[in-house]
Amino acid sequence: MSELEFSAVALAFFVLVLIGLIAAALLYASYQGEFTAAAPEVATVQKLLDHAEQQYRAASSPETLDRSARLLAQLTENRQAARKVWFDFAQILLLNLLLPVLTAILGYVFGTMRTDKKTDPQG
Q: In this structure, are residues 107 and 9 in contact, taking their beta carbons and an 8 Å threshold?
């Protein structure tokens, strides 16, 4: 393997490692957003439901239950928006940027290896 081919293979390996690190970081960020950040939201909803129960006993629960339902809907929308941001970021970075670069590098490496074997009289 020539120095140029070796450099291309090393570059392809570097891009592949970079893709793996970015994918791992995105998975970790997604995990943090899904499971770690959920505790304050659950506590807020639990407080609202406790308040709704007290209001229900006081016979004025429809307002409180509607407010709780709106808050739950807003929390769900916020969670889906956060997921969409991470998904779009991963798609742009991994699929639209790094994967084509990796494909081009590997295409070059394998293309030059095949060409060298065809032109080599001993091959």
A: no
Place of tokens 């997604």: 30
Token readout for 21 is 């690190």
DSSP 59-82: T-HHHHHHHHHHHHHHHHHHHHHH
Res 99: pLDDT: 85
Rounded distance between C-alpha atoms, residue 109 and residue 8, angstroms: 6
Distance separating alpha carbons of residues 83 and 38, to the nearest angstrom: 13
Query: Considering only CA atoms, which of 81, 72, 65 is closest in space to residue 45?
Result: 72
Residue 56, pLDDT score: 65
Instruction: Measure the CA–CA gap between 112 and 104, rounded to whole angstroms.
Output: 12
